[in-house]
Give the backbone structure.
Amino acid sequence: MSTELPEPPSKIELKPGVGGGGEIPSFDITLRVRRFLPEATADAYWEDFKLTMYGTDRVLDALHKVKWEHDGSLSFRRSCAHGVCGSDAMRINGRNRLACKTLLKDLDTSKPITVEAIKGLPLEKDLIVDMEPFFQSYREIMPFLISKGHEPTKERYQSAEDHAKFDDTTKCILCAACTSSCPVFWTDGQYFGPAAIVNAHRFIFDSRDDAGDMRLEILNDKEGVWRCRTTFNCSEACPRGIQVTKAIAEVKQAILSRTV
Amino acid sequence: MSVSIPAPRSQRIDPKYKRGPKSHGSFEKLAWLFMRLSGVVLIVLIFGHLFTNLMVGEGISGIGFGFVAGKWASPLWQFWDLALLWLAMLHGANGVRTVINDYAEKHATRAWLKGILYVATIFIIVLGSLVIFTFDPCVTGSQLQQCL
């Protein structure tokens, strides 16, 4: 049984030809992917795919089109596909971006769009790298709340001002776009990297946390914050718009003001 | 029936994390601080040096053995030039040290480059300090008035 619903009062009659989504413009692109198939070849190589894409498509949609319709062996990581999970960070036209947040229409479609794996981490296949070194340095800064004294019965209060100190660095999604854009990290992978420092910042400046000194001591390492050369690659790469270099500078200041 | 599958050609990535052991002390912090502080002092020293040598008096045409001898007769300029020598050399050497750390990928390359850098730095600092303190304007054939 179905009943006809009355038309909503907000409905406006449009003349034919007015409004509507219209046709989404389509265009041809060349997607140039850095392939690495360890079972087949010893070296990585570029492979071009000619695709017809739409104005609403992202780089991730182009990769899906390749994988689903052209070459199923193309490998890349993605999970939520909406810029929240941080799985699909890659080098797009030489810059670290999330494939799911980069619209094709914002890139220069007259030239091939290059897509590579992020740099500085061991390459496993195509666009997939071993993230273990990245997460190792993340674990070293103890990214969890450490508090002393009695646990409060209700909640740990924090003023809006106290929260504002580290609000920016809570936005990290651990996509590794910053760390793998850092030229110091590319050298030997020994540097903690921007992502680990950002996540340390999130707890160091949290008024509810009591292990700030411990984290500052960890980052006072020779591979810690002092290796930052403030090239701002990380701030430019961050898909969440975190002021990464600023956060690193704040940690430097905190180490100096606590121990000098 | 057995099928032999060739081993993958990629070098298996060692799941062990190859980060070095934790460092002790705060050398890098002090080096970072030194760069900033010495940089500020060097701006004053360098522009003071350039101004007195090039803008005051006869300018560049007045610079010669006698000009340097005259300057080093004063303890102020001895101290000025000594501070300039030490700060510029240590500031520059530390800068090159970080460049080597950032760009050399092998431990052996790093060690060699830094070794050469340290030897050169110490040599120039020692030589320069000796010249400033043991400077004798009355070398053989000197035309300066106080030596005649």
